[in-house]
Amino acid sequence: MLKGTENQLKHLLFVFLLLTFSLVGCAHRNVATPSFAPLDPSFPLAASLPDVGQIRLPRYNRGQGWRAGHQNQETTLSTFDQTSSNNEEVEEDSLDESLGFFGEETEEEVVQIADPLSPWNRAMFHFNDKLYFWVLKPVTRGYRAVIPTPVRSGVKNFFYNLTAPIRMVSCILQGKGRAASAELTRFLINSTVGVLGFGNPAKRWPELNPSEEDLGQTLATYGIGNGFYIVWPILGPSTLRDSVGMVGDWFLNPVSYVEPTEAYLEIWAIEKVNETSFRIGDYESLKEAAIDPYVAFRNAYIQYRKKKVEE
């Protein structure tokens, strides 16, 4: 029992040290983020993006600042790497719908987010960027070349099925009883008929579509604000509130209880490489189109989380 607790604390030590650092000397001001179609920052690296066909970005005009929502002020960018995308028929389900940009027009509004750690955040963004290009992308390309798409899709389904406790508990805490019940039913079906979650037979029933909830969103429903913006090394963009929620999500994920620590890290790495194998090329497209990639990713993250909380 004590050994298991010790290993869990080792997993969290890195996160807690960085969080403690981020809380020192936080005199800050809010910065405005423009309203535009948000992205899903679900990747562990800030340098990873969902698999999308088109990305819409705000443009900066002198005297007007960042604006969006008008066709003459947007850049529409088609992702390259279309050849590999066309060669891969990935199993589509409700999860994929949450892993993309929202293409509809959005009302122009200003979202405030404090960024007192901008120097730290930019350094970590740069670190994650290099980690993506120098490590994650080459490894993922090799992995994708060796492992066929059906197998990778099964692995993706398996890990997603394991995160059902996060969504179910979050739904319960938010008073979404029907969504929690659907999540439990979906988990049982996919874990049995779907052979430990490698299959996704529950997608046949639309009423069992998962609710993309987490403890960060749960804290928001209780009136807790974003706090300040922070970019974690390897883990990517977050806020103070979402960082606290991320720790809670970690305890609800069965993978976090794997021992020893080395085995846990190996499983975690496999999950991230497999997840990234479906979206190589998207990050490059957004980065090349952005005037300031750091600002673009920060704004997109805050807009995305705001939309998820409001759903």
Describe the structure.
By secondary structure, this protein is mostly helical. Among the domains are: 111-146 and 226-246 and 256-310, no CATH class; 148-213. It is built from 12 helices and 7 strands. The protein has a 3-stranded antiparallel sheet. It has a two-stranded antiparallel sheet with strand order 1-5. Mean pLDDT is 76; it is low at 12-29 and 34-108.
Chain-wise SSE layout:
Blueprint: H1 2-22, E1 30-33, E2 54-61, E3 65-67, E4 74-78, H2 82-86, H3 94-98, E5 111-114, H4 118-146, H5 149-162, H6 164-173, H7 177-192, H8 215-221, E6 229-232, E7 236-239, H9 240-252, H10 261-276, H11 282-289, H12 293-310
The stretches of 5 or more residues where confidence is low (pLDDT under 50) are 12-29, 34-108
Number of strands: 7
Radius of gyration: 19 Å
Structural class of the secondary structure composition?
Answer: mainly alpha
Cross-sheet strand order for the largest sheet: 3-2-4
| Nearest-integer average pLDDT | 76
Looking at the structure, what is the overall shape? globular
SSE arrangement, N to C: HEEEEHHEHHHHHEEHHHH
What does the largest sheet look like?
3 strands, antiparallel
